[in-house]
């Protein structure tokens, strides 16, 4: 997926085959209810030599209606353990799972309970409390009480989790 080598400085972290940096901009304050079109303008900085940059961009405008649920949450990613090549810098790992929890409901998310286990092993529960507004996300790191990767079925070592409440 990503090309090897150091792309950190000369290409601002980008390399062929990897994801580009995305930016989310809230434009609600700049539009009115009932507007049927929106003009979005962006410009390039001009260098001291009078030259403009040249970028190829892809832009999507996403709009939302009313909230679907008053209370809703989701696990948007399992960062570790994970064998997806996008997460190879922090994997493989057999302890300290890392997940992303996101509030997708209208009301602030104040608590969550997550069950997690290694396939064939005992379930454990992670309780979280805090405050996440709509569309906010938090990374959660936690530990297994016992490292079940070495104690469960040797042929099935799959990390599982479920958002319970």
The multimeric state of the shown protein is: single chain
Distance between the termini: 36 Å
> What is the β-strand count?
6
Q: Give the ordered list of helices and strands.
A: EEEEEE
CATH architecture of the domain at 73-163: Sandwich
Strand numbers in spatial order across the main sheet: 1-2-5
**Net shape:** flat
Please mark out the parts with pLDDT under 50 across 5 or more consecutive residues, or reply none.
none
Mean pLDDT: 76
Task: Work out the helix count.
Answer: 0
* Overall CATH class of the domain at 73-163: Mainly Beta
**What fraction of residues sit in β-strands?**
25-35%
- What integer value in Å does the Rg equal? 21 Å
CATH topology descriptor of the domain at 73-163: Immunoglobulin-like
Largest sheet entry: 3 strands, antiparallel
Q: What class do helices, strands and sheet pairing give?
A: mainly beta
Q: In percent, how helical is the residue content?
A: under 10%
Question: What's this, in brief?
Answer:
This protein has strands at residues 73-80, 98-103, 109-118, 124-132, 137-141, 159-163.
Task: From the structure above, extract its key features.
Immunoglobulin-like; 165 residues; 0% helix; mainly beta
Q: What does the model show?
A:
This protein has strands spanning 73-80, 98-103, 109-118, 124-132, 137-141, 159-163. A hairpin with a 5-residue loop joins strand 3 and strand 4 (124-132). The chain is an all-beta fold. The protein has a domain at 73-163: Immunoglobulin-like (Sandwich), CATH 2.60.40. It has no helices and six strands. It is flat and about 65 Å long. The strands form two sheets. A three-stranded antiparallel sheet has the order 1-2-5, with no helix packed on it. Strands 4-3-6 form a three-stranded antiparallel sheet, with no helix packed on it. 0% of the residues lie in helices and 26% in strands.
């Amino acid at each position: 997926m990503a090309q090897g080598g150091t792309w950190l400085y000369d290409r601002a972290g980008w390399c062929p085959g990897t994801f580009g940096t995305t930016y989310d901009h809230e434009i609600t304050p700049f539009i009115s209810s009932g507007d049927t079109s929106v003009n979005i303008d962006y410009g390039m900085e001009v260098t001291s030599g009078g030259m403009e940059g040249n970028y190829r961009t892809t832009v999507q405008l996403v709009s939302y209606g009313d909230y679907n649920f008053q209370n809703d949450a989701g696990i948007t990613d399992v960062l570790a353990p994970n064998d997806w090549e996008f997460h190879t810098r922090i994997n493989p790992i057999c302890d300290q799972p890392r997940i992303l929890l996101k509030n997708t409901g209208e009301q602030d998310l104040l608590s969550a309970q997550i069950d997690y286990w290694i396939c064939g092993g005992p379930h454990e529960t992670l309780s979280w409390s805090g405050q996440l507004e709509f569309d906010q996300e938090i990374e959660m790191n936690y530990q297994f009480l016992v490292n079940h990767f070495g104690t469960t079925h040797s042929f099935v070592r799959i990390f599982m989790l479920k958002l319970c409440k």
